[in-house]
Write a structure and sequence with these properties.
The structure is a homotetramer. Chain A has about 140 residues and is α+β, with helices and mostly antiparallel strands. The first copy, chain A, is built from 4 helices and 6 strands, in the order βααβββββαα. Chain A has a single domain, classed as Hotdog Thioesterase (Thiol Ester Dehydrase, Chain A), CATH 3.10.129.10. In chain A, strands 1, 2, 3, 4, 5 and 6 form a 6-stranded antiparallel sheet that branches. The longest helix of chain A has 17 residues. Chain A is elongated, with a radius of gyration of 16 Å. At the A-C interface, helix 1 of A face helix 1 of C.
């Protein structure tokens, strides 16, 4: 299953005085795209919560290639790049929809947590269905 | 008891492409000043939470007189302007520290809520100590 | 011409520790809806900029009726409620798409500015085309 | 010259529905600390702007070790960890002031830009004074 990229417009309130989207906002866009990705995969946030699972963010990185400006429309692609017992890496690619220019790439690292016991859990064991889903969505390139 | 105004610098990430602080941020500054005001009054957020009290925000208004820019230092004065059984109005005045120029004024309206029962409660009855404190801090002008 | 309301999902990063969308974000949603409204009207931000016009925000108010939560989809209706020579008032209504429940109402007040001379200008005189457009979109209720 | 860490309180509006500071905000705190660091060094943002210099952000990373909550006070240490002709790396360490616990570490990568010509410039050549300053502040560990 390959989810569609998230299409999104850059908002005025996301600009800074350089006339570009402030770098902190891309981190939020990654989250938007991740949430959308999970929903498309049929395993939205609520479902994870109900299952007692936290997909905690433990690290991230971002490279700024070129700038997004107010009014630009971008597409955000999400890839699962690594899937281990208790953790996962997700990559992102933000491109301008009109020009196709690459704007930003990034990665977030996540840990699977039991939301009650507050400790890492092996996803394969606690939610094999989600593990299989992630496995099937892993980037093959 | 008259709390001191909150002194605060305008951050780069709070600017927009007009080169000024985006208007939504003042709403956040009001909150910062309100939290600080409560703490100075000896009744911080945690204390309200422990007492099972929510001070829910039900409305706000803001007038923009002149602009704050990145690097400016402002002072934010907080006044309790109305205190009723189950609600309260709080006013704000943001001035530039260097020039004394008025930047923004605003008001937030709050409702006292029982955080468990999820319904309005008369503050005077459930937390008379806090009611008296607010009463003593009410703006006399 | 009656623009369509903006449909929008509430983002995770817009929540606060009460588990609801933080009140400051609705102010940003108003802006998103206003920008969208102008675009639908065929007079987007860039066009105003090119014409040397600033539609400065000079005041706002917001009433919080019920709460939006992460994952909720809302629709935001925009109305021009007042149109004067050098200023305009715009009203907003945010409803939950699923239930139709009213979440938030608000108003923003704007001033027409010559972006070079940095002073108020009569819209009717400097951009009669936009004035007529706004006039035709004014809420008749 | 060794600048003092920035001391900062976590704001309510920076929390998310997990009851912790949303991860995107640390990126903004890094910026606050960087701005403060430059000011303490006697070379604030305005001075760089006047000299026609942009210190563009081209990449960042962040590791989340433990969580900051509303009301916590943190200290943010800033180190210059790499200084090349046209670029620089800056590291950050966020600790809880009360407990000393490490909360977050991160790094930002920057490029020196001529703000008019919009292209990378060797800092040593265009602003030797700032280059020397950065050199003297470079982390020796």
């Amino acid at each position: 299953m390959t989810p569609k990229p998230l299409i999104r417009k850059a908002n005025y309130y996301e600009t800074d005085q350089m006339g570009i989207i402030h770098h902190s906002n891309y981190i939020r866009w990654f989250e938007e795209a991740r949430v959308d990705f999970m929903e498309q995969a049929g395993f939205g946030y609520e479902k994870a919560v109900q299952a007692g699972l936290d997909i905690a963010l433990v690290g991230l990185s971002c490279e700024y290639r070129s700038m997004v400006r107010f009014g630009d429309t971008v597409e955000i692609k999400v890839y699962i790049t690594e899937l281990k017992n208790a953790r996962m890496s997700v990559s992102y690619e933000i491109k301008d929809v009109k020009t196709g220019d690459l704007r930003t790439t990034g990665e977030t690292k996540h840990c699977f947590f039991d939301s009650k016991k507050k400790r890492p859990v092996p996803l394969k064991k606690v939610l094999p269905e989600l593990y299989e889903l992630f496995e099937s969505m892993k980037n093959k390139d």
